[in-house]
Amino acid sequence: METFIVKEEEQGNRIDSYLTKQKKDFSRVAIQRLIEEKKILVNNKPTKASYKIQKDDEITVEKEEPKEVEIKAQNIPIEVIYEDKDIIVVNKPKGMVVHPANGNPDGTLVNSLMAICKDSLSGIGGEIRPGIVHRIDKDTSGILIVAKNDKAHINLSEQIKNHEVKKTYIAMVRGIVKEKEATIKMPIGRSTKDRKKMSVTKNGKEAITHFKVMERYPKHNCTLLEVKIETGRTHQIRVHLAEIGYPIIGDMVYSNGKNEWGIEGQCLHAKSLVFKHPTTGKEMFLEAELPEYFKEMISGMEKESSF
């Protein structure tokens, strides 16, 4: 148990912000989770993350021992784009789940990383080793950063929360997109009709997606897009593009089951990331090459200029 007494000059700050500064080894998200679990008390009473601390408040934080996670190392080939003592950046193949969960106990990216990194993956979030800072869907391929220590994990998590990490995707969508470029700004939340799906809803969280046309293929009724996101909502790109009438090819969840191309899994690839290295502060720009099936699909199509 740790105890903090609020000083006069510290009062008025949100408790989650205050504790993040006091506990350098904890992210704001971790602090908020402990508050929800009532493991952080103010004057012996549960509190909220938005609580504004007052002078002489006694804040107690229940010490949390990270639990060992039963994840076995598996020798699963994965393309490593970049690696140093703090981070490892990989090109995740389509069809691979990022983290073990119900229905996917192994064969995941984390299982592969356990074999590559051994014990050098971070343990933020109450678990030892996983190291996952952000995720991409099982059937989305592409670039992913993984933290190898807690300091790197906290730094990268803060960059993502503050929208400082720039993510660029490539998507092949059904239909001919008329605009050269546009921004979709529609809130996304859990679907009320199907709890496994997300949807555009007025009560959802803010979601902003920018796209521009890379190539149009009228003969094949599809368009190749470059997509950049400001927010990272679950299924954001898939939901937004489907909502405006251009579902991603192969996305059986958000395209009403239509898939005349016979593609398994959505044609969506996380192409590049721009972020600051968590230790050196140097700006990093890293890219993941398109998977072969995606390259073959593009090369087999006739461009708009052919007509």
Outline of the structure:
The chain has helices at 15-22, 28-36, 109-117, 150-161, 236-243, 292-299, and strands spanning 2-5, 40-42, 45-46, 58-61, 79-83, 87-92, 141-147, 166-174, 181-185, 188-190, 198-200, 208-217, 222-229, 268-276, 283-287. The chain is an alpha+beta fold and 307 residues long. The chain has three domains: 2-61, Structural Genomics Hypothetical 15.5 Kd Protein In mrcA-pckA Intergenic Region, Chain A; 65-162, 2-Layer Sandwich (Pseudouridine synthase), CATH 3.30.2350; 167-269 and 296-306, Pseudouridine synthase, CATH 3.30.2350.
Key features?
307 residues; alpha+beta; Structural Genomics Hypothetical 15.5 Kd Protein In mrcA-pckA Intergenic Region, Chain A; Pseudouridine synthase; 3 domains; nine-stranded mixed sheet; four-stranded antiparallel sheet; 27% strand
What does this protein look like?
The protein has three domains: 2-61, Roll (Structural Genomics Hypothetical 15.5 Kd Protein In mrcA-pckA Intergenic Region, Chain A), CATH 3.10.290.10; 65-162, Pseudouridine synthase (2-Layer Sandwich); 167-269 and 296-306, 2-Layer Sandwich (Pseudouridine synthase), CATH 3.30.2350. It contains six helices and 15 strands. The chain has helices at residues 15-22, 28-36, 109-117, 150-161, 236-243, 292-299; strands spanning 2-5, 40-42, 45-46, 58-61, 79-83, 87-92, 141-147, 166-174, 181-185, 188-190, 198-200, 208-217, 222-229, 268-276, 283-287. Strands 5, 6, 7, 8, 9, 12, 13, 14 and 15 form a nine-stranded mixed beta sheet that branches. The protein has a four-stranded antiparallel beta sheet with strand order 1-4-2-3. A hairpin with a 3-residue loop joins strand 5 (79-83) and strand 6. Helix 1 (15-22) packs across helix 2.
